[in-house]
Amino acid sequence: MAIKRSRRFHPEIPTSSMSDIMFFLFLFFLIISTLANPNVIKLTLPKASSNETTNKDHISISVTDDKRYFLNKEEIPFDQLEQAVFNETTMRNDKTVVVRVPADNKVQDLVDLMQMGVKLKLNFVIATQK
Question: Does the pTM of the predicted model rise above 0.70?
């Protein structure tokens, strides 16, 4: 004669602390994402003795060593850059553009960008590092 169990075994995973763990992970990634640099294009910026920072997120133009142009993080050919900058500034209603050029880049690349800024009546700011 066999003894029958009155209760069946139900395997369980304790999840009471799972919500706490998820909360702390969410908080960690939220804090890290606010500290991350929005400009993912790595450039060696020119050095300056004094830097001013801004809290506002302005439009950014980056030029790499091999003359590739980026508007915010999107690569754009130079012949289309002026129209793209004009569209972006009118959409955001922000006339300030941060120019990021490498420290060892030719001055002519910077002058070409500055002429575009004068033509569009924009305020260009050169990004530097301390």
Answer: no
User: Smallest Cα–Cα separation from 73: which of 95, 103, 100?
Assistant: 100
Q: pLDDT confidence of 120, banded at 50, 70, 90?
A: confident
Contact between 58 and 125 under an 8 Å Cβ cutoff? The reply is yes
Average pLDDT score over residue span 109-117? 82
Residue 39, pLDDT above cutoff 60: no
Cβ count near 82 (within 10 Å):
16
Burial of 61 by CB count in 10 Å (0-12 exposed, 13-18 middle, 19+ buried)? Answer: buried
CA 119, 120, 126: angle at the middle one, nearest 5?
90
Question: Which has the closest alpha carbon to 100: 130, 74, 56, 70?
Answer: 70
